[in-house]
């Protein structure tokens, strides 16, 4: 069992789902077969292995880092970007009736096990389904306030029966009061699925502000900094920048996109922004070092400071800090984990090589 076993269903339940090819568990776990070195989706139609020859992982990148290869039949790296049908149906119902209160009884009536839903949302959104719903409703209220609605109207429209309850929930979620939020910049976020696990993207009107893997240890601190230092009110939602980065990420992972075009907005110190600007110039499929970046900035002795700013980059992949390696050629640290860094470098190297071959 892997280190993220606390996020996974019980072992016996996963064995049953694997043997029954249960599609309800798509995106919840991956099956890795020790005897073949291959990992699959739960619903893979290939011949099922003996349970004692199997281990389970929460994310596709964990399978890769453990030395397993993706199954050619069920293509689990493609499936990693697909939420199970029962989640799609639920999200569609939420969009159709945003005012509906989803109790456990309502979920069970729809054939959804509340505990399984809780696990899936915690794994893929970093919060429970009910917490996500609550934040979503408050985000709708925030949008109304920004457009000139009164606080009373916003509170009652999103289902709160008392203003005090609405104000308390609003402040807890957005770290500001409804009145001050009218003058703050909304930072909308959405979950994105990738072959390396779920990511969270955040964008305001000027551009993409954050793109991180949900299991990045520094993610909570980064979001709190955006709220407390830069005054953002964070809420679930969509805008053109979030739609664009979702499309561009899919193209990047398929090896088709080598330069992101989505607009960016990078709050930070002047030095940090200089470092991030240098990161953005590292060519696709190539690498550099902290020392080289420091020299380009005219501060050859600032290698450590460059490393610190590199680690503070909030835009994983788009601002390619994964292309920075140690002077000795080692991968060095990476906020998303070294297995992901190795995967990204391999992906870019392979795509670059294919482009060269096609050119001849």
TrEMBL record:
Protein's UniProt keywords contain Ion transport: no
Molecular function per GO: DNA-binding transcription factor activity; methylated-DNA-[protein]-cysteine S-methyltransferase activity; sequence-specific DNA binding; zinc ion binding
Keywords of this entry: Activator, Cytoplasm, DNA damage, DNA repair, DNA-binding, Metal-binding, Methyltransferase, Transcription, Transcription regulation, Transferase, Zinc
InterPro entries the record matches: Ada-like_dom_sf, Ada_DNA_repair_Zn-bd, Bifunct_regulatory_prot_Ada, Homeodomain-like_sf, HTH_AraC, MethylDNA_cys_MeTrfase_AS, MethylDNA_cys_MeTrfase_DNA-bd, MethylDNA_cys_MeTrfase_DNAb
An example Gene Ontology CC term for this record: cytoplasm
Major place of residence: cytoplasm
Pfam name, any one: Ada_Zn_binding
GO biological process: DNA alkylation repair; methylation
Residue ranges of every copy of the HTH araC/xylS-type domain listed in the record: 111-184
Additional detail: This enzyme catalyzes only one turnover and therefore is not strictly catalytic. According to one definition, an enzyme is a biocatalyst that acts repeatedly and over many reaction cycles.
Record-linked HAMAP family: OGT
Family classification: Belongs to the MGMT family.
Protein name (database record): Methylated-DNA--protein-cysteine methyltransferase
Organism whose genome encodes this protein: Pseudomonas reinekei
Lineage start: Bacteria, Pseudomonadati, Pseudomonadota, Gammaproteobacteria, Pseudomonadales
């Amino acid at each position: 069992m892997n280190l993220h076993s606390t996020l996974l269903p019980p072992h016996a339940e996963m064995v049953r789902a694997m043997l029954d090819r249960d599609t309800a568990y798509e995106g919840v776990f991956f099956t890795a077969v020790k005897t073949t070195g291959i990992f699959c989706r739960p619903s893979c139609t290939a011949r099922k292995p003996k349970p004692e020859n199997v281990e389970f992982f929460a994310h596709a990148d964990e399978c890769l880092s453990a030395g397993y290869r993706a199954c050619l039949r069920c293509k689990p790296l493609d499936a990693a970007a697909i939420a199970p049908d029962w989640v799609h149906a639920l999200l569609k119902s939420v969009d159709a009736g945003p005012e509906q209160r989803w109790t456990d009884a309502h979920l069970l009536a729809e054939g959804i096990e509340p505990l399984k839903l809780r696990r899936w949302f915690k794994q893929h959104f970093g919060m429970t389904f009910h917490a996500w719903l609550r934040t979503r409703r408050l985000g709708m209220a925030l949008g109304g306030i920004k457009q000139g609605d009164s606080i009373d109207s916003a509170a009652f429209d999103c289902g709160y029966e008392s203003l005090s309850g609405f104000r308390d929930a609003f402040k807890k979620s957005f770290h500001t009061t409804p009145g001050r939020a009218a003058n703050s910049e909304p930072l909308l976020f959405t979950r994105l699925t990738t072959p390396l696990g779920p990511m969270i993207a955040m964008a305001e009107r000027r551009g993409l502000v954050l793109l991180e893997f949900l299991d990045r240890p520094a993610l909570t601190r980064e979001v709190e900094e955006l709220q407390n230092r830069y005054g953002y009110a964070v809420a679930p939602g969509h805008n053109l920048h979030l739609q664009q980065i979702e499309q561009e990420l899919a193209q990047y992972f398929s090896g088709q996109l080598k330069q992101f075009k989505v607009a960016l907005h990078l709050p930070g110190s002047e030095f940090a922004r200089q470092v991030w600007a240098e990161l953005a110039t590292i060519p696709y499929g190539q690498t550099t070092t902290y020392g080289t970046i420091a020299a380009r900035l005219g501060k050859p002795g600032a290698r450590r400071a460059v490393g610190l700013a590199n680690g503070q980059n909030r835009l994983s992949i788009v601002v390619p800090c994964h292309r920075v390696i140690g002077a000795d050629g080692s991968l060095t640290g990476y906020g998303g984990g070294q297995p992901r860094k190795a995967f990204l470098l391999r992906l870019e190297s392979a795509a670059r090589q294919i482009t060269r071959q096609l050119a001849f």
